[in-house]
Write a structure and sequence with these properties.
Radius of gyration: 22 Å
Helix content: over 70%
Number of strands: 2
Shape: globular
Strand content: under 5%
Order of helices and strands: HHHEEHHHHHHHHHHHHHHHHH
Structural class: mainly alpha
């Protein structure tokens, strides 16, 4: 298993430090502007909060590429007294996902929630706060800071779900709220125990105190934190809030929930178990247990997705299944195949985010155009909404893991890693999961290509018009999911440089 990460002996330039702070605070300031009356201040705040993010991330990416991981000590106070931000290849990848997926989904939402209107004034401050909170979470190196960021992510995502206004959406958001509060309580209790045992909240210095801490206290703390994160991340069998929440939310919200929000908990599980916890027999047992949950998610979610009658529910249960891939890599952390497994798992995180966001935006277009997302109502979709169907199909190619998509490359790397490590049960689960994904994606496509029975009356209404930009948003994300299979070499090299255990202690 990978050894815990200690902070590298370097910091980055002032420009890079300012860029790290800006990716957190620009969306936050944009949220303040979005609540101002009038369309101009709202639009200015939204654009200023989202548009500069890719440019800022270019500087951060180049710095990490050339100089490696580094930290930013807030207020000039060093750990363990101070709070610091930490940036490495995994954090950079997640920040890019927020910028790209969050930005494209925001362009889609521009037409449903026009800035400066009543609905826009409710939607955009929450959206920008969500972007800011996720960026802060991916950069934070402090367990309590991570708790605050995780709460901000949750408390902005829940009202965004409720904005759909339906009874189903209200019930789903309330269920999410109650379970998220329970998850927060478990996480915070675990952090308190861990702080009492180790004397630090720094995520990358905790391991220094674990050896001298009472084993039972440490085990309990790690179990509580992990349980809270599994509930936040909707990992099987704690996924009960996810399907209805994702299926009931507005399209752009569903896209970000599936592609990014649930990944925050998986990200923290990675940080906790692959960076902070020393390599012990107990830790390896915990990683195997997490992989078993991932296997259950992959199979259970795939079967449930295959049985659904609504398009958005199929995609939501697919999310439950696809999260399982991200946990399957964990038992390989102590094997020689770990670098390949890490590349495969991280690339799956990226390709799934792009593909699933595309599917939810395409589903939102279809629902708006047809007034229904029931599979039985999707006949002749290739004639009525050809571009939305094309985006849905191209994203499905990546979800199934067919070439030349990013999903294919991720699953190929995972299969290679399981083969090299001799984890045959994981190999069987990977194959079964891919077959289930193919089954529910082809079921969707079969429903969309079906023709009406000539003896039946044709539907009373054809499709309602959809702004071309909304169709383009879904199509762009789907094409990016495919492009991830072509432009993989530099990305995989960057990911490999940040493999847990590759940075030595100072």
């Amino acid at each position: 298993m990978a050894t815990p990460l200690q902070t590298p002996l370097q910091t980055h330039s002032t420009m890079t430090s300012e860029a790290l702070v800006a990716v957190i605070f620009l969306p936050l300031l944009g949220a303040c502007a979005a609540v101002m009356p009038g369309r101009f201040p709202a639009r200015l705040g939204i654009v200023a909060g989202l548009l500069p993010l890719p440019g800022l991330l270019v500087a951060v990416t180049l710095a990490v590429w050339h100089d490696g991981p580094a930290w930013l000590e807030l207020g000039g106070w060093a750990a363990p007294l101070g709070i610091r931000l930490f940036v490495d290849p995994l954090a950079v990848l997640m920040l890019w996902m927020v910028a790209i997926i969050g930005g494209i989904a925001a362009a889609h939402a521009w037409f449903d929630f026009p800035p400066g209107t009543g609905t826009g004034q409710k939607f955009w401050p929450l959206w920008l706060l969500l972007i800011s909170a996720m960026n802060a979470l991916f950069l934070s190196a402090d367990l309590f800071n991570l708790y605050v960021c995780l709460e901000l992510v949750t408390l902005t995502a829940i009202p965004l779900i409720a904005l759909a206004g339906s009874k189903t959406a209200i019930r789903a958001s309330m269920r999410y709220l109650l379970l998220a509060l329970l998850a927060s309580l478990l996480y915070l209790l675990g952090v308190a125990l861990l702080y009492n045992a180790t004397g630090t909240l720094d995520l990358y210095l905790v391991s220094d105190g674990l050896g001298a801490a009472p084993p039972m206290v440490v085990t309990t703390a790690l179990a509580l934190i992990s349980l809270g994160l599994l509930l936040k991340g909707a990992v099987f069998p704690l996924h009960i809030w996810l399907p209805q929440a994702h299926a009931s939310a507005p399209g752009p919200v569903s896209a970000v929930l599936s592609a990014l929000v649930v990944k925050t908990a998986i990200y923290l599980l990675y940080r906790l178990w692959l960076w902070s916890v020393p390599a012990t027999v107990a830790a390896e047992g915990a990683l195997t247990l997490l992989a078993v949950l991932g296997a259950g998610a992959l199979l259970y979610g795939g079967v449930l997705a295959l049985l659904q009658e609504r398009l958005k529910l199929v995609i939501a249960y697919s999310t439950v299944a696809q999260l399982g891939y991200l946990l399957l890599i964990l038992p390989m952390a102590s094997s020689s195949a770990w670098p390949i497994a890490w590349q495969g798992g991280t690339y799956q995180l990226l390709s799934h985010g792009l593909a699933k966001a595309a599917m939810f935006l395409a589903a939102a277009n279809i629902l708006h155009g047809l007034g229904s997302d029931r599979l039985s109502d999707l006949q002749r979709l290739d004639q009525r909404q050809p571009l939305s169907l094309f985006a849905l199909a191209m994203a499905g190619v990546s979800i199934m893991g067919l070439p030349p998509s990013g999903g294919f490359l991720a699953k190929w790397l995972l299969l290679e890693a399981t083969w090299r490590s001799g984890q045959w049960w994981l190999l069987a689960v990977l194959v079964a999961g891919s077959l289930l994904a193919a089954a529910y994606v082809f079921r969707i496509l079969a429903a969309t290509l079906r023709r009406d029975d000539p003896t039946e009356a044709r539907p009373a209404a054809e499709t309602r018009s959809i702004p071309a930009a909304q169709t383009a948003c879904a199509l762009l994300l789907a094409l990016l999911a495919l492009a991830a299979g072509f432009a993989a070499a530099p990305l995989l090299e960057f990911i490999e440089a940040g493999t847990p255990g590759t940075w030595s202690s100072p």
